[in-house]
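Sorry, explain these tokens?

___
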Amino acid sequence: MAAYSERIPVLVTVQEKALIARMAQEAHISMGEFLRRAASSFRPNEDEQMLEGMMDQMLKTTAQASRVIDDTLSFVEASNQRIASLESSRKG
């Protein structure tokens, strides 16, 4: 049996603690052992990894779209200034 010597304080709600206690009791193990087993078996599934990849791509695409919009607005502003200049030269 391993000699446990480190603590990891984890705050949970009253309801979460009751659920963990019940699940540990049903498994006939201590809450500490239950949490150790749960933590060691946790692995992000493919859906979570895919979602993270999609979010990363969305952030990159959004940044790119924002740059294109800024460039387009700058072009439109410069064009409006050229048009205003031409119109004022025709009136004068």
DSSP finds three helices and no strands in the chain. The chain has two domains: 1-42, 45-92.
